[in-house]
From TrEMBL:
Annotated PANTHER family: TRANSALDOLASE
One Pfam family here: TAL_FSA
Lineage: Eukaryota, Viridiplantae, Streptophyta, Embryophyta, Tracheophyta
GO molecular function (one): transaldolase activity
Reactions it catalyzes: D-sedoheptulose 7-phosphate + D-glyceraldehyde 3-phosphate = D-erythrose 4-phosphate + beta-D-fructose 6-phosphate
Domain of life assignment: Eukaryota
Subcellular location field: Cytoplasm
Gene3D superfamilies: Aldolase class I
GO BP field: carbohydrate metabolic process; pentose-phosphate shunt
InterPro entries: Aldolase_TIM, TAL/FSA, Transaldolase_2, Transaldolase_AS
Biological function: Transaldolase is important for the balance of metabolites in the pentose-phosphate pathway.
Keyword rRNA-binding: no
Protein name: Transaldolase
Amino acid sequence: MATISKLSNPCLNYSSSTSFGIRSSSSAPKFFIDLRTSNSNSNRLSDSKLSFVINHSIRGSLCIKCSQADGNGSSVKRTTLHDLYERQGQSPWYDNLCRPVTDLIPLIESGVRGVTSNPAIFQKAISTSNSYNDQFRELVQAGKDIDSVYWELVVKDIQDACKLFETIYDKTDGGDGYVSVEVSPILADDTEGTVEDAKWLHKKVERSNVYIKIPATAPCIPSIKEVISLGISVNVTLIFSLARYEAVIDAYLDGLEASGLSDLSRVTSVASFFVSRVDTLVDKMLEKIGTPEALDLRGKAANAQAALAYKLYQKKFSGPRWEALVKKGAKKQRLLWASTSVKNPAYPDTLYVDPLIGPDTVSTMPDQALQAFIDHGSVARTIDSNVSEAEGIYSALEKLGIDWGFVGSQLELEGVDSFKKAFDSLIDSLQEKANTLKLVSL
């Protein structure tokens, strides 16, 4: 359940004149929505839609940035998430999902407009919570195999979350309010297997506002085209390079053209471009080079590449080919910034959110990034505010010997491997739990 807490160490003081460096921030104590579960004995204020835990030891004015009045003159709570969407056209999503799914309600109230999940998120959710026990027991006792049990648990969470975001989906005519669920990670190198899994998962969830996530591996690029052509909306994930991103866009366009549908308005997609992991790898390479020039570029690679991805997005979704699809109701495949939490504690906690704001984009944020942005994020169009600087950083890194192709390939391998390990680990733990349950039942 969401709680309101006081930041004991609100934020670092930092400054820079560019959108790819570090932005200034007030050092005054602030309050933020705490997305973590509270085990304290604090008093709880609640209504049917929103619950907060108030810690009475806190002194000062509790507020969510920023309060404004609605059209009737009454005070309504607004956050920077509302401003982000209404002023800049960027949709804030939440990168996490677990039971009880109703914990998403206060996040929706605070401006969250969609949810992303992945095998690692479900591994953590299912293995660390007792909320899945009753359904798990019923499925095992019904004779379901462990793979089936896993998907039943996942699909229920996705369906329940889709219901919560249905109003946003309807109000935006399918423009927002999506919940993403990924095909089995063991199929990352299987073109046909991914297509069949996507079809099965889409039918199993049976919700209009679900996104089927497909990794942007080379074998899955044709899968993306095929699934889109079937009229299934897709979240393409694990994109780490400009070259692969362009292939993803082409797969989307090819899929729309191959669909044969006269109305393309209900076939939508996002392209999940990962950011912080890029800096994690490139920073290590720069530290190995060790020159002053190399060290000065730390923390700048990811956002520079992201700015160039947005430039590519603008180019590809314009011109005669795209206009022909627009006449059939086609919607742009929005760029989604993923991996937005800061991995290096020396960096500002909104480093992968503030500089990547632009229209028709999505920023999906885990707890850490979401808390930070609500508390002290800046709402301004930044993604294309200095493209020439981004190009300069990208080129400077190349001149230092940073191979962008290698960076993309290495991060893709690591991402796929991470999801496979999370999936295998969860399946193993569920099997062990099922075995124990069966022994107890004897």
